[in-house]
Write a structure and sequence with these properties.
- This protein is an all-alpha fold.
- The protein has a single domain, classed as Helix Hairpins (Orthogonal Bundle), CATH 1.10.287.
- Helix content is about 70%, strand content about 0%.
- It contains three helices and no strands.
- The longest helix is centred in the C-terminal third of the chain and has 31 residues.
- The model has no long low-confidence stretch (mean pLDDT about 85).
Length: about 110
């Protein structure tokens, strides 16, 4: 197997997508700051997008299905980032910290 022809195999894309998803999931569990959690969530969505595009290229009979799903994921990721960053800014203004452990006071 030549290294230049790795883009012709579905398994390579699935490994990359699973790797991105695993890094994002690990980061979501281990990060204490809200910005780190936001970046980890973006990695999870990127891993899902890579998998959709891989299945679109190699398996799907209609080539637009995976691309449409990926566009929806990108739109959801952009909306999630905008809302999450506004929440982080509001929390920082009130508590002067973006540490997730400091937000225990928000529990009703």
């Amino acid at each position: 197997m030549n290294l230049l022809n790795l883009y012709n195999f579905l398994e390579m894309y699935l490994v990359i997508g699973a790797f991105l998803f695993a890094i994002g999931f690990y980061g979501l569990l281990q990060r204490r700051s809200l910005v780190g959690m936001l970046i980890a969530a973006e990695l999870i969505l990127a891993g899902a997008s890579v998998n959709f595009m891989a299945f679109n290229r190699f398996v799907a009979p209609d080539p637009t299905v995976g691309q449409i799903f990926t566009l929806f994921i990108m739109g959801i990721a952009a909306a999630e980032a905008a809302i999450a960053l506004s929440i982080v800014i509001a929390v920082y203004r009130n508590y002067k910290s973006i540490d997730a452990e400091d937000l225990a006071e928000l529990k009703g």
